Amino acid sequence: MDLLLKGGWVVTQERVEQADIAVEGEKIAAIGPDLEARAAAVRDVTGKYILPGAIDVHVHYQMPIGELLTADDWFTGTRLAACGGVTTVIDYAEPAGPAEPLTEALAKRLEEAREQACVDYGLHQVVLPGQEEDTGELAKVIEQGVTSFKVFTTYNQRLGYAAIGRLLKQARRLGALVTVHCEDHDLVTARRRELEATGQTDPAYHANSRPAAAEVKAIEEVILQAAAAGAPVYIVHVSTGGGAELIAAARARGQQVFGETCPHYLLLTEERYAGPDSRLFLMCPPLRTVEDNRILWQHLASGDLQVVATDHCSYSPEQKAAGTAFYNTPSGVPGTETLLPLLYSYGVRQGRLTLPQIVRVLATNPARLFGLYPRKGCLAPGSDADLVVFDPSQEVILKASDLHSAAAYTIFEGFALQGYVEATYLRGRLIYDLGRFLGRAGQGEFIPGKITVL
Ligand SMILES: [Zn+2]
């Protein structure tokens, strides 16, 4: 036996129980009380929780937008993930334009990640207008282990609702899951024109410029398309209570609609745009209201939203400062490193979620939805030994200077946390311990997604 974690509280999606975990090579070998294993390394984890490594299924590392590149690349992005107890991330392979074949975009992205990644990773395939018709290319990326597609209802990459319907039909046939960024393009465009006409273009108007109604409208349209196609669909970064309620209602009708939200939509509000640092909080969709926060927590607890991910897309304050208006300020915020600690403190400690629920929304559900289960997302013999030692007694005030993003700021500066990640193991290897990153570039592996029947 290579490693024994002794005396901790093992947290699975079902329960919390005191047990030891034995690791052999890269896999969990056994879980049980008082394991009598002779191990090369024994770690006393009395009083600590052992959770499966978190999976952040929505990150953007080294992402170009025009001339601009995100602050975190594959190395710093996956390093900060390790420091936050995240052992698998899912990023995106996006063609440079509709003429670039999906397989080429995918090959380039895999090549970028290969020598830099410090944790395991998967990819979603972005599908641009017209590419939803190319059955051959869609099938090829699935064969290569990319079993989820991403489309937008807004931006230049947008597909119309009918085109999303066509992709949903292809995906159903091929066994892939379509994930959608939902903001209605016409509503967003109309509001932008109104604001421009009255000179209200400062980043302070960001929330106003992308109204809740735009998200709700797009989610409604996409749910209708999914119903017509008989396909499952996954809505990324749900920011509104109204959107979450549409997902819950569709599920109650028996439709397979899945929803993701992010810590910032649970914990922050649009008041942040009133301050001098509005640009640092600018992401799409924007922050909403306290009432939206409340409804999102409620739907996470009920299981109608299944995943919390971060949409980690980091820009430094200097990059952000280049923005003169809400529409030209780099959009996105860092988040992966604080995902698990925030969910524990503000979810579990504040009585909104249980520990097993945290495991479900951060590990089990993401692994199941994106075809990584049971290799990832659970603590069981035979699964990868992706383990987080979490110390519930550690009190932390979040400070950017203690975090590892190249963006060098956090939207959660000053947040008080009760409990923090003590150590992270990736496939049995210690990659983070007591504040120190111990991993190395290139040790993260591409984990192909399997086709899963949801
Ligand atoms: Zn995103």
Q: What hetero molecules are in the model?
A: zinc ion
Largest sheet composition: 9 strands, mixed
Tally of alpha and pi helices: 13
In CATH, the topology of the largest domain is named TIM Barrel
Strands, total number? 19
CATH homologous superfamily descriptor of the largest domain = Metal-dependent hydrolases
Helix content: 25-40%
Beta-strand portion reads 15-25%
Name the quaternary structure: single chain
Q: Which stretches are poorly predicted, pLDDT < 50 over at least 5 residues?
A: none
Compute the number of structural domains: 2
| Architecture per CATH nomenclature, i.e. the level-2 architecture of the largest domain | Alpha-Beta Barrel
Average predicted local confidence, pLDDT: 97
The first-to-last residue Cα distance is 36 Å
Overall SS class: alpha/beta
Question: What is the global morphology?
Answer: globular
Q: Please compute the radius of gyration using only Cα atoms.
A: 21 Å
